[in-house]
Design a protein that fits this description.
Subcellular location: Cytoplasm
Binding site for UDP-N-acetyl-alpha-D-glucosamine: 96, 125-129, 312, 334
Family: Belongs to the EPSP synthase family. MurA subfamily.
Helix content: 25-40%
Bound molecules: ligand EPZ
Oligomer: single chain
Structural class: alpha/beta
Strand order of the largest sheet: 22-23-1-24
Number of helices: 14
Low-confidence stretches: none
Number of strands: 24
Radius of gyration: 22 Å
Largest sheet: 4 strands, mixed
Domain Enolpyruvate transferase: 8-413
Mean pLDDT: 96
Strand content: 25-35%
Shape: elongated
EC number: 2.5.1.7
């Protein structure tokens, strides 16, 4: 298993180009299942999770092409000859986002068999709201042998529009139901819909494909189902979490960086908190110049649904708080077990205590390098950030977690002057 080895202490300098958003690309790739025409995508990030999703789609029968062999961010997909509407346990167990084929397959093929995603390190992460919404649209759903078996109501063979209010705000739940509703017979109203920018990006693509959706960006989406959707071209929005991760890296390690090809308007909550921590930022239309000198100030925060502070940035800002002056209270309200980076940060000399869904970080003067283990995607980013700030050498094991959501993180950090290498 690959490891990352770094020697902390050098400030970051230079430019970093942000890739397309993982959590927009994953539902957007699945949207190709809704039509027999070609969907052409740009700015698709070259990540393990994206490669896994492309493999899953190919196994379902989607033709995946890279029109320019040298450019993995430019992908053409055609689901004209779907041969199976099943996502097996083998495929789904490596990536929970595989659940995103359920809605489109059911809407297009009128049946779908998708393995229930197992638990995950950060929480139980059930999919009951996805199922509740599809049932409201008339689907019959059986859970058997670890699989979700869904059928549309015969003889119309189509889902029907429905009013759906999810019990909690769910990002992929909203995305699954949005895709299913776009081909349903009648109008669907999704109340309590997720407002994450990645949901909006999917909706923009669906509209380009001929879907009739209003309320994009709000918590109430109204979808008037159509009989067919057609092909489209789309460029995936920049990854706000990757951008936020690099902002936390410079806040912890010091220096000055220019974050390019990002969308600052999707990062307001993160920018506000990092300003409180002492990061100086100049914000442009698609760039952020960030500089940090001296020690960051502790900043308390609580995660919540968009537009509030994102749970996917919690571990990264905690790493900044680990070496900040003062104490910070960090409350995680979305997932029940998203503090596994705490004990690893403490191995680096941090002083963080957990009380239920709150962590109390007492900032220390300096961290000292050690061997630590990544446990999930954003935890691994947090450990890399801490390693960049720590004195001496840090080794982060199991960085396959990192590779799921970051495109060549160590190469981008090396270009910023960090002393970091991947060890096979
Ligand atoms: C998406 O996961 C993201 N993944 C996650 O990013 C992100 O952390 C999460 O949204 C929250 O923003 C993708 O978009 C591929 P949820 P998702 O459904 O959709 C509960 C990363 O690091 N819930 O919004 O699975 C659930 O247990 C990943 O890139 C139900 O109870 O998250 C959680 O507590 C990690 N029943 C809360 O709601 C359901 O049917 C929010 O989950 C659905 C969700």
């Amino acid at each position: 298993m690959d490891k990352l080895r770094m020697v902390g202490g050098s400030p970051l300098q230079g430019e970093v180009i942000i890739a397309g958003a993982k959590n927009a690309a994953l539902p957007i790739l699945c949207a190709c299942l809704l039509t027999d025409q070609t969907i052409t995508l740009r700015n698709v990030p070259d990540l393990q999770d994206v490669r896994t999703m492309l493999k899953l789609l190919q196994e379902i029968g989607v033709e995946v092409r890279f029109p320019d062999a040298a450019d993995r961010s430019y992908v053409a997909l055609n689901a004209g000859n779907i041969k199976s509407s099943e996502a097996t346990y083998e495929m789904v167990k490596t990536m929970r986002a595989s659940i995103l084929v359920l809605g489109p397959l059911l809407a297009r093929m009128h049946s779908a068999k998708v393995s229930l995603p197992g638990g995950c390190a950060i929480g139980a992460r059930p999919v009951d709201q996805h199922i509740k919404g599809l049932k409201a649209m008339g689907a019959t759903i059986k859970i058997e042998g670890g699989y979700i078996q869904a059928e549309t109501p015969s003889p119309q063979n189509r889902l029907k529009g429905a009013s759906i209010l999810t019990d909690m705000i769910t990002v992929t739940g909203t995305e699954n139901l949005l895709m299913a509703a776009s081909l349903a017979n009648g109008t669907t109203i999704l109340e309590n819909a997720a407002r994450e920018p990645e949901v909006g990006d999917l909706a923009e693509l669906l509209v380009k494909m001929g879907a009739k959706i209003t309320g994009i960006g709000t918590d109430r989406l109204v979808i008037e189902g159509v009989d067919k959707l057609h092909g489209a071209e789309h460029s995936v929005i920049p990854d706000r979490i990757e951008a936020g991760t690099f902002l936390c890296a410079v806040a912890a390690a010091g220096g000055e960086i220019l974050v390019k090809h990002c969308r600052p308007g999707t990062l307001d909550a993160v920018i506000v908190k990092l300003q409180e921590a002492g990061l100086k930022m100049e914000v442009g239309s698609d760039w952020i110049k960030a500089s940090m000198s001296g020690r960051p100030k502790a900043v308390s925060f609580r995660t919540s649904e968009y537009p509030a502070f994102p749970t996917d940035m919690q571990a990264q800002l905690m790493a900044v708080n680990a070496i900040a002056s003062g104490n910070a209270t960090i409350t995680e309200t979305i997932f029940e077990n998203r503090f596994m980076h705490v004990q690893e940060l403490n191995r680096l000399g941090a002083d963080i205590a957990i009380e239920g869904n709150t962590a109390i970080a007492q900032g220390v003067e300096a961290l000292s390098g050690a061997i630590v283990m990544a446990t999930d995607l954003r935890a691994s980013a947090s450990l890399v950030i801490a390693g960049l700030a720590a004195q001496g050498e840090t080794q982060v094991d199991r960085i396959y977690h990192l590779d799921r959501g970051y495109d060549r993180m160590e190469q981008k950090l090396t270009l910023l002057g960090a002393n970091i290498v991947r060890v096979k």
